[in-house]
Amino acid sequence: MRLIEFKMERPGLVKAGDQVQIIEREGTSSYSYIIDPAVAMSGCYMGRDRIKSDHGVVKEIKHNDRGYYVIVEFDE
User: Which residues of the chain have pLDDT under 50?
Assistant: First the structure.
């Protein structure tokens, strides 16, 4: 199991237990991921750290003074 954190701009778009689909975006030297349809975005990952799965399960939603964070578990 692998946990990845995604930044979400507003609450209520997903909830714990939801299965989510992700889209991979290739940059010049890294990859980032978006929970489809434009729910939240991950940070950047090098090629060796790419996410192999195209879907995962939301484990929890965190909220702090910087915003909302979706923790997604991938089966890899």
Answer: none
